[in-house]
């Protein structure tokens, strides 16, 4: 599935139409891209959740959910994430494609009408603001989300590693903000960000299904009329500015209970979002990664038996690369040495050509899997188009194929170790 | 001998082949587009399997054996690792174990016929040595530690223990540290021979192959065959447990709770079983109403 063309509904508001008759489902999504604002990460995270929870026509979560069931269990999802200086709020509905619905005429219109109502006509109180009860409940939910992260050693270790390596001069906070920000949310702050989202953002619509393009366009012009107003493209930076790695490496040890320790290793990437060297970063991530075919798994886990779980994450917008590993308490130094040996092999230009080839296959499969069902396709196209990135990645895959062991070596030499975080039961970090 | 039956469902836009060869049932879903190809081999052994018939004898399976086998079958007799061979073919492979089955899966963009043969081959050629078993114990003990540290994993196991007095569901799929340490190559081979054969497997594929390609792949690999009547399934002992409410105290950031109910499964009529399962779903649906009720309680009096 590929978008057939991009239509401009009005300046700053675009639409990608993806015709397909292969699936039983259709998908529709609308994305808003707007600048982040210091102290408002939590408000942004809460806003998206509030909008897809109730609406003016379905003012309680019970009736809102019931309506979704009436729409043949239409699935709604919302993502609100930060990428460098931007917030992306993506609202998506996946629903039965029109040919499979016999009892409801104009089923697609019913679904899009429901989505438009949720986004554009929230369940306000008599003062015309988000309801206090709903805000209070969502605050608890967000706070619970933070607490739930702390229940998972792995997720907590990742969160702490991101916190200790955050740049204090930027508002480098998690997507959902902080506990202090959550507590400070008011109806007024939400209203302010809501206006920013609707009227000061770039907007993108995507539809994949069997309805004709002109029908979908007519529906959008009718249902989303109030936000189809011209706006200027949002200018700014997609990546955090480059911060130098800590020297010496920042090392933080915190105590926990239980049986396992979590070791986190953070590295600074030399590139950010949309960099011309992105293919080297992607190939490096695939070569190292946590997939069974990759180096961290085979060397640290399979050959040495040092761990069960070892995973890596690369965030171009934050310019960091993180390796997380669940280990036996007291074994952190030997695991660090094993990871270091893996990196040394790559740095020396000795990456096995078979592994490079496998990494390329892995990248290809990851990209093509985006197009295997309508909701993944719509989500992928929406995000990439919103951030000005190509959807057709054949040229990018060609660049990945050209990455050699020498290219990886020279790229890795620019990747700097930044911090080590150890979350360990008492008695761990024996060599610290 | 092979049977090939085409099932065509235009009302769902789906077509698939049902293939049976040498006792191995195969479902081949015809893909709509040639993107990635997928294969999953399901073996009927899971963590609930604790006994099996071996001639006149009843033999015991150590807890965690099914999961251990899943880990170790990737080791090949020539010293190579099936994961690396899959990697060299451009495929991604993995496996998982549940209470009732062990599944081996792989996906790739090309070479699907070769990848499929590789999947069937490594599952058919067990290779357990003292060294590779001892090395794997270290990894699996770390996996066990990971679940022991996870409050949500603990909640699931403790809920099962509340419901069932005696059943393997009370144990983690990985087994216990004590049972893991007792596993030997000899024990693994015994369990493998009992459970890993075509009469106890199913294969599901979708990808860039024709039915003849699938049949050729099945012909090229010598898969183990075995007896059908070896399995001894555990019975769920129903009835009210002595301690309906149990509290597990440990340091957590967010307390968790679960309400678990068990329903006896009716024997015999499959349609009665489906009706019962539907009834269970309807009964459980009001649990969603608990959320706002709990929030209302939490406002005035934290749980």
How would you describe this structure to a colleague?
The complex is a heterodimer of chains A (432) and B (303). By secondary structure, chain A is an alpha+beta fold. Chain A folds into two domains: 5-227, Cytochrome Bc1 Complex, Chain A, domain 1 (2-Layer Sandwich), CATH 3.30.830; 250-425, Cytochrome Bc1 Complex, Chain A, domain 1 (2-Layer Sandwich), CATH 3.30.830.10. Helices cover 41% and strands 22% of the residues of chain A. Chain A contains 15 helices and eleven strands. Chain A has helices at 41-51, 61-70, 107-120, 132-151, 153-164, 179-184, 187-199, 213-223, 278-288, 295-303, 332-347, 353-368, 374-386, 394-402, 405-412; strands at residues 5-10, 13-19, 25-35, 75-83, 86-96, 202-209, 250-256, 261-268, 307-315, 320-327, 416-425. Chain A has a six-stranded mixed sheet, sandwiched between helices. In chain A, strand 1 and strand 2 (13-19) form a beta hairpin. The longest helix of chain A is centred in the N-terminal third of the chain and has 20 residues, at 132-151. Chain A is globular, with a radius of gyration of 23 Å. Chain B has ten helices and ten strands. Chain B folds into two domains: 2-232, Cytochrome Bc1 Complex, Chain A, domain 1, CATH 3.30.830; 270-300, no CATH class. The longest helix of chain B has 20 residues, at 130-149. Chain B has helices at 65-72, 82-88, 112-124, 130-149, 151-163, 177-182, 185-195, 211-220, 270-284, 290-300, and strands spanning 2-9, 14-21, 24-29, 37-43, 51-54, 57-60, 91-97, 102-108, 201-206, 231-232. Chain B is globular, with a radius of gyration of 22 Å. In chain B, the strands form two sheets. In chain B, strands 1-2-3-9-4-8-7 form a seven-stranded mixed sheet. Chain B has a three-stranded antiparallel sheet with strand order 6-5-10, with no helix packed on it. Chain B is of the alpha+beta class. In chain B, helix 1 packs across helix 7 (185-195). Helices cover 38% and strands 19% of the residues of chain B. At the A-B interface, helix 2, helix 4, helix 10, strand 9 and helix 12 of A face helix 2, strand 7, helix 4 and helix 10 of B.
């Amino acid at each position: 599935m590929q978008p057939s063309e991009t239509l401009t509904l009005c300046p700053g508001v675009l639409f990608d139409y993806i015709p397909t008759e292969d699936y039983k489902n259709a998908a529709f999504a609308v994305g808003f891209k707007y600048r982040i604002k210091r102290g408002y990460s939590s408000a942004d995270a809460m806003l998206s959740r509030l909008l897809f929870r109730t609406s003016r026509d379905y003012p309680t979560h019970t009736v809102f959910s019931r309506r979704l069931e009436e729409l043949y269990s239409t699935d709604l999802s919302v993502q609100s994430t930060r990428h460098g200086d931007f917030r992306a709020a993506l609202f998506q509905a996946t629903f039965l494609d029109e040919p499979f619905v016999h009892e409801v005429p104009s089923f697609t219109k019913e679904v899009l009408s429901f989505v438009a109502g949720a986004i554009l006509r929230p369940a306000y109180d008599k003062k015309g603001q988000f309801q206090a009860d709903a805000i209070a409940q969502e605050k608890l939910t967000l706070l619970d989300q933070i607490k739930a992260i702390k229940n998972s050693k792995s997720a907590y270790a990742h969160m702490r590693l991101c916190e200790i390596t955050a740049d204090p001069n930027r508002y480098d906070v998690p997507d959902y903000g902080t506990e202090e920000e959550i507590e400070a949310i008011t109806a007024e702050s939400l209203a302010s960000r809501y206006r920013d989202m609707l009227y000061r953002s770039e907007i993108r619509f995507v539809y994949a299904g069997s309805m004709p393009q002109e029908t979908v366009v007519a529906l959008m012009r009718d249902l989303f009329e109030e936000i189809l107003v011209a706006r200027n493209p949002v200018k700014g930076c997609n990546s955090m500015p480059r911060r130098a790695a800590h020297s010496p490496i920042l090392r933080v040890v915190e105590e926990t209970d239980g049986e396992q320790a979590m070791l986190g290793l953070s590295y600074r990437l030399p590139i950010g979002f949309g960099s011309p060297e992105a293919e080297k970063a992607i190939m490096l991530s695939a070569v190292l990664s946590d997939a069974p075919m990759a180096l961290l798994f085979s060397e640290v886990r399979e050959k040495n038996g040092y761990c069960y779980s070892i995973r890596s994450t690369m965030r171009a917008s934050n310019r960091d690369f993180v390796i997380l590993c669940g280990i036996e308490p007291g074994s952190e130094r030997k695991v660090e040495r094993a990871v270091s040996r893996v990196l040394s092999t790559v740095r020396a230009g000795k990456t096995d050509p078979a592994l490079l080839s496998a990494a390329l296959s892995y990248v290809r499969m990851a990209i093509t899997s985006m197009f295997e069902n309508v909701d993944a396709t719509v989500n992928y196209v929406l995000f990439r188009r919103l951030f000005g990135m190509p959807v057709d990645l054949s040229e990018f895959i060609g660049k990945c194929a050209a990455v050699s062991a020498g290219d990886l070596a020279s790229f890795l030499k620019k990747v700097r170790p930044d911090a080590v975080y150890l979350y360990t039961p008492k008695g761990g970090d024996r060599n610290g | 001998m092979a049977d090939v039956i085409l099932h065509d469902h235009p009302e769902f836009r789906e077509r698939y082949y049902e293939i049976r060869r040498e006792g191995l049932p195969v479902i081949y879903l015809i893909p709509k587009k040639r993107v990635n190809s997928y294969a999953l081999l399901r073996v009927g052994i899971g963590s609930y399997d604790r006994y099996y018939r071996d001639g006149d004898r009843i033999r015991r399976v150590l807890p965690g054996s099914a999961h251990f086998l899943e880990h170790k079958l990737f080791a090949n007799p020539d010293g190579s690792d099936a994961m690396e061979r899959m990697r060299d073919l451009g495929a991604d492979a993995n496996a998982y174990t549940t209470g009732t089955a062990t599944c081996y899966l792989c996906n790739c963009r090309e070479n699907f016929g070769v990848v499929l043969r590789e999947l069937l081959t490594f599952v058919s050629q067990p290779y357990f040595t003292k060294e590779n078993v001892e090395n794997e114990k270290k990894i699996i003990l770390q996996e066990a530690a990971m679940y022991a540290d996870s409050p949500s994993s603990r909640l699931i196991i403790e809920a099962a223990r509340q419901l069932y007095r005696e059943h393997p569901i009370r144990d983690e799929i990985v087994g216990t540290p004590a049972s893991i340490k007792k596993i030997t190559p000899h024990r693994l081979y015994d369990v493998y021979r009992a459970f890993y054969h075509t009469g106890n497997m199913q294969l599901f594929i979708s990808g860039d192959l024709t039915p003849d390609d699938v049949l050729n792949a099945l012909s090229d690999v010598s898969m183990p065959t075995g007896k059908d009547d070896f399995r001894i399934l555990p019975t769920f002992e129903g009835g009210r447990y002595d301690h309906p409410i149990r509290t597990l105290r440990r340091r957590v950031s967010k307390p968790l709770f679960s309400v678990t109910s068990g329903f006896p499964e009716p024997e015999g009529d499959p349609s009665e079983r489906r009706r019962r399962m539907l009834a269970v779903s309807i009964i459980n649906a009001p649990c969603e109403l608990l959320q706002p009720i709990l929030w209302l309680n939490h406002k005035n009096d934290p749980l």
